[in-house]
Amino acid sequence: MQIAALPRTFDDQRLVGAGYLADAVCRHLPDGPARRAELRDLIWSLTSLHPYGQLVVQRGWPVRRYGDWIAQALTAVALPR
User: Fold this and answer.
1) Range of the domain at 18
2) pLDDT tens digits for 2-40?
């Protein structure tokens, strides 16, 4: 594997992991199966390194604040509508 392909590989692996998490969340939601793909994509997006880089590295957020925010964001996207 070439080094240039690593970011895509990491993203693909993170998407698989987000799918597992979405499956677990969907089991507890009345509309879960219908939202599985959306939840997977939102979890995948929120767990990328990009928001961390923007908020912690560029904007100077403390890691704890970022952790609290990401927990709230992930909870919010998983709540039943």
Assistant:
1) 3-78
2) 888 888 888 999 999 999 999 999 999 888 889 999 999
Digit-coded pLDDT (tens) for 42-68: 999 999 999 999 999 999 999 999 999
CA distance 73 to 1: 34
Within 10 angstroms of residue 23's Cβ, the number of other Cβ atoms is 14
Tell me how many domains the chain contains. Answer: 1
Tokens (6 digits) for 23:
């499956």
Q: Give the contacts of 22 (CB within 8 A, at least 6 positions apart).
A: 36, 37, 39, 40, 43
DSSP state letters, 26-50: HTTSTTHHHHHHHHHHHHHHHTSHH
Q: How far apart are CA 39 and CA 9, in angstroms?
A: 20
